[in-house]
Amino acid sequence: MKKLLASLALVSALSTSFINRENFETKTIENKAVSEVKSISEIKENAVSSAEIFSTIDFSGINQLNPEVFEKAYKGFQKLKAAGKLPEESQILSIVDFSLSSNTKRLWIIDLNSKKVLFNSLVAHGKNTGDEFATNFSNNRNSLQSSLGFYVTDDTYFGGNGYSLRLHGMDRGWNDAALERAVVMHGAKYVSEQFAAQHKRIGRSWGCPAVPSELAQQIIDTVKGKQCLFLYYPDQNYLSSSEWLL
């Protein structure tokens, strides 16, 4: 009798275990499906909101930013917020389009709250990144090249280039050596239309996104303190591997 009861208890336990496991697996599959649907929904929502936001930004009287570049910048901006890399109240998005000539104003600093472009300015690339056009990028020390990707701005300091802004590279392998390389935002006299007129291009930095000296303090004070900076170039290796664009 005892053996019979023990056998029945074992069968009951195994049945319950199987049912619980089946329920767990079913719930796991359901949760995964819901998660995937949410993910697709969020991507669609971000794409729509990005287009809507871009359409409301006033570019009158300044260079027009490529909407595809803005879409990528905004997507990364949102993902950085979701990952806790940017504070929720952060609303300044700075974008550099390195596919453009260095003689054009290819830096846009946008207030996403007011939908206004606060600055549209010249910006330098690294000495070994190219002449008038940027073509080569590196994350290596002493490369004197610019580094692509997303940055989070930090604090300011006075250094060899005057008032400067520290930058934290957020793309592993692409720009995460920025602090070690002393890649910062600073002003430079060689970033000017006068210099470009004389040399057929503006001057180049050692990898820093240098801005016109007369605008440096205003620009730096606007973008400092946990704001997003995106340095864009149509490098397919970068665009297909950045965790902030996937």
Automatic annotation (TrEMBL):
It comes from Cruoricaptor ignavus. This is L,D-transpeptidase catalytic domain. InterPro entries: YkuD_2 (IPR032676). PANTHER family: HYPOTHETICAL EXPORTED PROTEIN, MUREIN L,D-TRANSPEPTIDASE CATALYTIC DOMAIN FAMILY PROTEIN. Pfam families: YkuD_2 (PF13645).
